[in-house]
Amino acid sequence: MIPPLISVILPAHNEAEYLGDCLTALLASEPGNWRAEVIVAANACTDQTVSVAQGFANQIEALGWGFKVTETATPGKLNAFNEGEAMASGTLFAYLDADVQVSPPLMGQIVGVLHGSAPAYASGRPVVAPARSALTRAYARFWQRLPFVTEGVPGFGLFAVNAAGRKRWDAFPDIISDDTFVRLCFAPDERHLLPATYSWPMIEGLRNLVRVRRRQDAGVTEIARQFPELLKNDDTSRPGVGELAGMGLRDPLGFAAYALVKLAVKTPYAAGTGWVRGR
User: Fold this and answer.
1) For residues 80-102, b (16+ Cβ closer than 10 Å) or e, as one string?
2) Which of 3, 65, 203, 246 has its CA 20 to 30 A from that of 214?
3) CA geometry: angle at 217 spanning 224 and 277, to 5°?
4) What is the radius of gyration, based on Cα positions, of the chain?
5) What does the pLDDT look like over 237-259, one tens digit per residue?
């Protein structure tokens, strides 16, 4: 039997600084009864993203994996997903941000749970990478303990689906929150949280945290407006006042950082919902 092929689609906009670490971690995946191809979809890059990607060609091909790089002047992550998918040959699809680093067991676990005929969605356990600013470290520490992160399968930075699951939508729509959209295309019992981890960087500093949180909220509102039928799959657990108070007692500095960002989102501070890197 031919081992399943997973297409790892990696959108990249000016990610030369981070792409090397992302690909190095991916290539360190534990081998198993599966094959992979890596598709770097560079979009509107003005740095060395493409040359960094191409510099991994020999290493990737030495593993027996496929490797493709596509470059477009059109900006946008969702368009990059579509460009990458147009080149994909796999029956399984992983969508990996260029600043994420997967742990060695994760890709094999993803293939194992997705290799079937029933529609399925999968991701690993996110671990926030060490932040530079004290505020972001405190916020991240508290945020990682929220039920959405600890109990769900959020998929930020990395999510994967099989062929049957990918039929749930056509081309990626031009929306803010791709991970929320894809997650809500699956019922809770079709989503699989795997034990292996991946490292995901959080935005740095109060202004950027507020802008990103505001943009995330706008993304959820956009999906509710454009795809209301998907809301039936929303099982997000939101902590009550008592639960937040208990968490705050255990981590007062983390709670203070979280509350500060949450309150600032409702003010004109750091106005604007445009994309921001801020790492």
Assistant:
1) bbbbbbeebebebbbbbbbbbbb
2) 246
3) 130
4) 19
5) 788 888 888 999 999 999 999 99
